[in-house]
Amino acid sequence: MNGSGLDFEKPILELERKIEELKKFTSSEKIDLSSEIKKLDDKLDRVKREVFENLTPWQRVQIARHPKRPYTLDYISLIMTDFTEIHGDRVFGDDRALICGFAKIEGQKIIVMGHQKGRDTKENLMRNFGSAHPEGYRKAIRVMKIGEKFKLPIVVFIDTPGAYPGIGAEERGQAEAIAYNLMEMSRLKVPIVVVVIGEGGSGGALGVGIGDRICVLSNAYYSVISPEGCAAILWKDRARAPDAAKALKLTAQELLDLGLIDEIIVEPLGGAHRDPQAMAQTIKASVAKYLKELSAAAPDKLIEARYEKYRKIGVFSAE
Amino acid sequence: MTDPKFEIPSDPKYIKEASAKVLDFIKELGLDKDTVFDIRLCLEEAIINAIKYGNKCDKNLPVNISYSFGDNRLEIVIRDQGSGFDYGNIPDPRSNGNILKHGGRGLFLIRNLMDKVEFNNSGNEIKMVKFLSGGKSDGRKG
Q1: Nearest to B52 among A187, A314, A318 (CB)
Q2: Could you say which of A33, A81, A150, B134 has the lowest number of CB atoms within 10 Å?
Q3: How confident is the model over A168-226, as pLDDT tens digits?
Q4: What is the Cα–Cα distance from A189 to A214, expressed in whole angstroms?
Q5: Alpha-carbon distances of A24 from A16, A173, A212, B24, rounded to whole Å
Q6: Answer CATH for B5-134 from 3.40.50.150, 3.30.565.10, 3.40.50.1100, 3.30.70.3550
Q7: Which of A311, A312, A313, A319 to mutate: most B Cβ within 10 Å?
Q8: Is residue A4 predicted with pLDDT exceeding 80?
Q9: What is the pLDDT of residues A27-75, one digit of tens each?
Q10: Where are the domains of chain B?
Q11: What ipTM does the predicted assembly reach?
Q12: From chain B, which residues contact A within 8 Å (Cβ)?
């Protein structure tokens, strides 16, 4: 990637720059260049489709990590109201990589949570690049249980390269915290809608990712390991990440084909970062649809359906 | 009174129905949700084994299921029509060569989550026992 975008976005960014220049020239010099602009607009449209409708899994991973991609707090501010953040796990501290709180969506009170990355180095250090510690997962389940107590449905945004594997995180029981969440989330008596908005990094994603409906944005990914990590283990060469991305079957379409997720939420052409407002509205529509659908179910039916959903994952083979 | 029993064809689509029937019985015992989860998991794994390995997915062959509760002891028996297997010689799913395999963990889970697991001599019937409150053990075997 260069400073202005991903490598494969370059022809698009170049055309957009030219169109912008022509438009400025038209207004400043009072010369009619509308036919040239129209031609370039058509070309831009064609190039965009060529590039973005044939993305490789690795290119999608790059879009999922795009520095301008909307994060959890962006979506909360775009589609929800009355957000009140809840801090701390009542055990160790507050994890800024995983935020939780109360909010309203279309007037309905909910619990919302999600991984949060930073926009610059300073914020990324504070947010630990979206990699949560055990206290993040413990805060998350604490807040989910508040939701259960007050019968509030839960909306989760997933966007993490993975749970943080540092010494402190391991000392404080990272694996236990995630495992505990899997068990507890599987039997929470309120609806849980999960949306993978960027990176769905393995246990870091799963630790808040058990739900009744799992949606993945069309350029987001969900995987047991990052492509670089996989390539380093399998081939001792991180540069083979594109091969790993293909082999891991981590794209939204592949996950849907494998029966692991419920819906692909289609991003604007070029990715969510090109039109965050439109992306947010599409997410809102899906989340609202599922909340309405799930809120009608009795708690025991909801839990039974969730159990069945996860038991069905995988293939029954008679070999 | 005889123990409740029923049979299902060797088709995975009947597992849910079979499991629901036994769970209805278990519900009456007022167990905690962790114990119910463990029993359900073991029951479903045992039925899958009977369908897949015992009856080789032959839908004409039944899987027999019976269950009973007495003296704080819940007993579930699953029987298939196969020729049985050497239950003393099951590969350990935790060993290096098996860790990435898709299957082979059912019996391991059953042995760890139930308190007592027995097979008949021919190896086509598994008896799973859970000791409930006041029983011999409500812990788990390692």
Answers
A1: A318
A2: B134
A3: 999 999 999 999 999 999 999 999 999 999 999 999 999 999 999 999 999 999 999 99
A4: 17
A5: 12, 57, 50, 73
A6: 3.30.565.10
A7: A311
A8: no
A9: 887 788 888 889 999 999 899 888 888 899 999 999 999 999 999 999 9
A10: 5-134
A11: 0.77
A12: 12, 16, 33, 44, 48, 52, 56-57, 102-103
Three-state DSSP class for residue B119: strand
Cα distance between residue B79 and residue B51, in whole Å: 10
Question: What is the maximum span of chain A, computed from C-alpha positions, in angstroms?
Answer: 75
Short-list A180, A257, A252, CA closest to A223: A252
Question: Is residue A316 less than 8 Å (CB to CB) from chain B?
Answer: yes
Residues of chain B in contact with residue A180, where contact means CB-CB under 8 angstroms, are none
Place of tokens 């965009």: A48
Distance from CA of A318 to the nearest CA of B (A): 6
A159 vs A48, higher pLDDT: A159
CB pairs under 8 A between A and B: 12
For residue A224, give the 3-state DSSP assignment. coil
Q: Does B33 contact A187 at a Cβ distance shorter than 8 Å?
A: yes
pTM of the predicted structure, to 2 decimals: 0.88
Helix or strand run (H / E) with residue B18: helix B15-27
Neighboring chain B residues of A311 at a CB cutoff of 8 Å: 44
What is the Cα–Cα distance from A195 to A149, expressed in whole angstroms? 23
The interface residues of chain A toward chain B in range 52-111, judged by CB-CB distance below 8 A, are none
* Closest residue to A316, CB basis, from B12, B16, B33: B12
Distance from CA of A23 to the nearest CA of B (A): 58
Describe the crossing of helices B15-27 and B33-49 by its angle, rounded to 10 degrees.
Answer: 150
Q: Residue B75 — φ and ψ, nearest 5°?
A: -125, 130
- Whether B101 has a pLDDT exceeding 50, the answer reads yes
Q: How far is B57 from chain A (nearest CA, A)?
A: 7
What is the model's pLDDT at position B1? 59
Residue of A nearest to B44 (CA): A311
- Report DSSP letters for B59-78, one per residue: TTSEEEEEEEEETTEEEEEE
Higher pLDDT, A219 or A10: A219
